[in-house]
Amino acid sequence: MLKMAPQSSSQGSRSSIKSRGRRRTCICGERPVLQTSSTAENPGRRFWGCINYQIGEECNYFVWAEPEEQDPQIQRLKNKASVLKQELQKGEKKFALALTVEIFGWTTAGLLLYDRFN
Which label site among 32, 59, 64, 85 has the fewest CB atoms less than 10 Å from its CB? Predict the structure, then answer.
């Protein structure tokens, strides 16, 4: 199912390139983004839509995504999210270690100064 605004022949040829059933660009020339439906008829169903949809542009590019196990783009995005989550966890551990070292350093410096002046 594909809903699009009327387009000129140059726009039609530009947006007719397909990649595994999904267009690479819409009539705006932008790559579609993966979104999740929040309608009562299709709650949680994934679809590819124009990034400019409902923000003043006239592009209504829309196509349902394949089931997640069949869509390589979704799997790639899940893998990327997993890698980013691991990197975030590593960063959080490094931050906690740096904070511990800093607190220890300031505590030690405070104790040394306290001993020196007392």
Answer: 85
